[in-house]
Structures are given as structure tokens and as C-alpha cells.
Description:
A: 20 helices; B: mainly alpha; elongated
Amino acid sequence: xxxxxxxxxxxxxxxxxxxxxxxxxxxxxxxxxxxxxxxxxxxxxxxxxxxxxxxxxxxxxxxxxxxxxxxxxxxxxxxxxxxxxxxxxxxxxxxxxxxxxxxxxxxxxxxxxxxxxxxxxxxxxxxxxxxxxxxxxxxxxxxxxxxxxxxxxxxxxxxxxxxxxxxxxxxxxxxxxxxxxxxxxxxxxxxxxxxxxxxxxxxxxxxxxxxxxxxxxxxxxxxxxxxxxxxxxxxxxxxxxxxxxxxxxxxxxxxxxxxxxxxxxxxxxxxxxxxxxxxxxxxxxxxxxxxxxxxxxxxxxxxxxxxxxxxxxxxxxxxxxxxxxxxxxxxxxxxxxxxxxxxxxxxxxxxxxxxxxxxxxxxxxxxxxxxxxxxxxxxxxxxxxxxxxxxxxxxxxxxxxxxxxxxxxxxxxxxxxxxxxxxxxxxxxxxxxxxxxxxxxxxxxxxxxxxxxxxxxxxxxxxxxxxxxxxxxxxxxxxxxxxxxxxxxxxxxxxxxxxxxxxxxxxxxxxxxxxxxxxxxxxxxxxxxxxxxxxxxxxxxxxxxxxxxxxxxxxxxxxxxxxxxxxxxxxxxxxxxxxxxxxxxxxxxx
Amino acid sequence: xxxxxxxxxxxxxxxxxxxxxxxxxxxxxxxxxxxxxxxxxxxxxxx
Lengths: 590, 47
């Protein structure tokens, strides 16, 4: 990243934060003032005040998201900090698994191991697969594929597997269990997810960065989503590859020494992590109390509290993950994240946290709380329109258009700026050229606009459930192709259809002038089952993909190719599970 | 943490324990009642 000294870097981060916060506050307050003028020209009622407050609040978080993107676009081009040479410290590469596809996860470990062995760094890196699997048939498969993994180059004595009988503390408890038993043998731990894949050179560079900066407690990469097949998955993949790096650069500009931790594809300094990140069980029952669900944000805050640097480096390549293939899987994951983020309100007041860490918690809470607030604003607007003498849009048609355009600009401007910047910098080559990249950005806007009301409903439901004290548990992530039938989609989203139809019916009956404004929300909601099912299908049958092309498809990194090759050779070579001797051993150990 | 004893691979992990003390995240709730109770308990002998 930058070559500026630490003090200059911190000062620059503080200044960037102030400018970003100031811009978001100014724009949202300005928007709120305009909104109040438009709706309150016949006298200000309590309903007007409520609507203006809601508009300003959700407007702030909308603008805040856009500001990070714009900052990233305006940021001067940088490169990852140079860290070459052989790492001195010992690193444990940890892959926690929980009822995952063992062949896929373990083949990723095999590919990363080969990459590290090829670099001649086998003696500096160990792998540990930390299983929390509680389904016996999956545990049996894990044993089989672990034996396959042990046949990999130099795996014996360097690649480990262990399974907990009781998954206390979930993923955070799994890592804590490893550190409390074996942490003393390692200087650093690279924490992965079951779907993580990282290039050996990137892993080595991260370990070297830890060697070179003794105050660095955690270094986070920005993983690129790969292997998406469905339309939904490929839109997310394109968005993550094309748009997210700029948002991450904006985040990096503001991070100072209190950067983010996203729970995986990051390296931590083991003694620092052990000394400062032992997570307590919060008082009370889930979803508000109990084990901390979204542990990553809390661990980053605790490392910062203890004086360690936490950094994200968006310029480190070679870091990959996979994403959900359909909206139902996405919503399941989002439900878990929502509960974890809302639980953070319990640690907002934790002693001696840095202010930015507390702000990060608020940001996470508002990422979910904003959805029911949008719905509340919509409900209040319908109510206001239904009341007599409140037909404000007739007198203020220009004004309301100004506001609508402003909201659109806040949402879309960063995406168009990224397209322009990528066109100027020659980055679009990896995305199929500028025309295809432009078409993909526009298609992404259309699809995300269609899906937004459905996600809004799912998030609002999640927030309400959590506020009512309903625990979402810890469902395993389904990472397969995930095609969703119309019947399944309907079973999951019929209530969204009903809600959309109800909004349309009520507004038609009581506030007909408002109907055109509500159609972009109500129609996708009514069509939710159709949209969920349709976007879960993809063109993986060899047809050329015109839209949403990414560099991981046009020029996949060697580590991606290698992992696919290993996975195919493992699963096609007759499936070790079919071997009765191996299967018998697996059953005996499960 | 309790481990599956039949898992032969667990024993292979390096035996290098490291303490991971629990952090304080929740402030102790203070109230007039709790303050009075603490003062009362500290000031008066208990049998």
C-alpha cells in the first residue's frame, strides 16, 4: 500500500474518515431538509417529522456506502506492500469445516499445499482441517478425503485433521480450541473458510508481512468470488470482482490501524490473537446473548483495543472464495450475519474499544436495520398519502423527482464511475472488454434492482425475528449448484408475494397517486418466487457467456486450475468412497 | 473442549497449549440498588 510513515498514514486515515462522514452527513441532512420542504408545505405534522427522520437516517447509510466506493475510485493506484523473501515465522493454515463437501474443501487444501511446496516453503507452513461436522456420513467422507490428502507431496507431518465432538462456540470456538491446544507451535495462523482458496505466493507474502511488521496483528485480503454457475451466483461474482475492490480500497483508505476482519482469508499473529481475542459468552440467551455469532468484527476490535494493527490490503491478489448460488442460500447466510450483527449492540459499550471499532459495529447493525426502516418509510408514506390534504406530490412533482434522482445517483454513481475508471485503465480486458463490461454493469443494476425488494423483505423478517428473540441457529452452508424449483421458491417466499400484493392493493385503494412510485418495489416482490427460481439457473452447459465475465473465468489463476484438476482427479478416479477398505476404515473412525 | 476419542488424527496436532483468556466485553451493570447493596455489604459485618 502506501509508503507513507505510520503517523502520516494514521493522520490521512483520520482525515479521510472525517471527510467521508462529513460528506455523508451533509448530503443526507440536505436530502432530509429538501424532503421536509416537499412534504411539509401544508404544515408539519408528526407523521412528516417521522418520515423525514426515517428518510435522513436511511439516506445517511445509503450515501455512506456510496462514499466508500467513490473514495476507492478516486484513490491513486497503489500496489501491495512488497514482502519478498522467505518467511521466518511458522504459520498454521486453518480450515474450519462444518458439514461441507469434504472432497471440494480438502482438494483446496491439496492445491494450496502444492503451491507452497512448489515455492520450497513447506517447512514454514502446516495445514490443520478443524472439523465441527456433526453429521456422521459427512464425517466419514472427511476421513476418506483426509487420507487422500495425506498422499499429497510432503503432507505427512504437516497436514492435520481433527474433529470436535461438540462444536462449542461454533467457528470462533473451533479456532480457539486449536489455539489453546496447539497455538504455541505457531507464530501466525492463516484463517480460511471451507470454500477458501489462496495462492501459495500470497500466503507467503502475508507471512512475510507479519515478520516485517511486529505490530501487525491481522492482515485481511479481499477474496474474489469464483466458480459461480447460476445467474444469481454470477451476478454476485461479477459484482465482487468488478465493483467490490473499489469499495474495499475506500475502506482501506479509512482504516488507519483499525481495519476490518471478515473471518477468513486473513492471517493473524497467534500470540496477539490468543492474548486479546478470547471471546466471552454474552449474558442471556441467543439471539441477543450466548456465543458471539459474528466473531470477526469483535476480534478485529479486540486486537485494536490491545494496540495491534489490523489492516486490509485490497491489492493482495490470489485470494478466493465461493458464494451462494441462489437467493434462498444467500438469505440463509444473511439471516446468520444479521443475527451476528444485531448481537453487536451488546458489545458496543465494551470498555476501551477504539471509536472506529464502535462505529464499525454500528455500521454492521445499520446494514440490517436499514431494511425495516425503508419499509417503515414506505408504510408512513402510504399512510400520509391516504390522509386528506396530504397530496404533496401534486404540488411538488419536480421536488420529488429531484429526490428520486438523488437516491438513484447515490446508488448508481459509484458503479458508473468504476466502469469509467476501468475503461481508462485497461482493466476491462479481463471482463470481456469494455462493451461487455458495460453491458454487465447495466444488467447487474437491473437484476440487483429487481432482487432488492425481495432481499429487503427477507432482511426485515430477519430483524423482526431477532427482535422477537427467535434464534436462527447455525445452518450449514450449501455450496453446490443450488437450482431452486418454483415450488421451493414459492414455499420460501410466498409471504413476500402477499406483502407486495397487499402494498399494491392498499395504495391503489387509498393512495392511488402513489402507485407508480411503489410499482418498482411491489412488482418484484409479487414475482419473488419466479425471480428466485429463474435466477438460480445458469448456462453452465458450454454455452458462451456474454455477460458477467470475470478474470477468474477468462484467465483463471494457476491455483484455481490446479484445485479443479485435483478435485476432478479425486472424484473421477473412482471415488475413494467406493473402495470398501477405505470406506470401512472411515466408518470405524467416525 | 471435548474431543471424539475415536478420532485417530487429533493426537497428531502439535501439543503446544497457549492460553486464550476471556475478554471483558460487557460492562457491569450499575444501579442505585446495586451501589447501595455493595456499600451496605462492605460497611456492615456479615455473620
